[in-house]
Amino acid sequence: MPKVTVRYWAAAKAAAGVAEEPYEAATLAEALDEVRERHPGELERVLRRCSFLVDGDPVGTRGHETVRLADGGTVEVLPPFAGG
């Protein structure tokens, strides 16, 4: 099972209470399921509005279950940002 780092930004960071943490997951969907399990409540609501980068590449509209994670990779959790 790949080990990845999930990094939270802005409102996601505030809701998680940490800037980043390790997870073991084969897909983005699996990683996000684990995030929701570890942080029920506000972070769950924030995730609904987030976009994601996997190893620097935007996930866009791809199904999260189709986005494979690589060992040592990074998932960036990006809530909508105000301003530019």
UniProtKB/TrEMBL annotation:
Highest taxon in the source lineage: Bacteria
Example GO BP: Mo-molybdopterin cofactor biosynthetic process
Provenance organism: Streptomyces tuirus
UniProt xrefs under SUPFAM superfamilies: MoaD/ThiS
Pfam hit, one: ThiS
KW Flavoprotein (keyword) present: no
Family designation: Belongs to the MoaD family.
Protein name (Swiss-Prot/TrEMBL): Molybdopterin synthase sulfur carrier subunit
GO molecular function, one term: nucleotide binding
Keyword Isomerase: no
GO cellular component term, pick one: molybdopterin adenylyltransferase complex
UniProt keywords, alphabetically: Nucleotide-binding
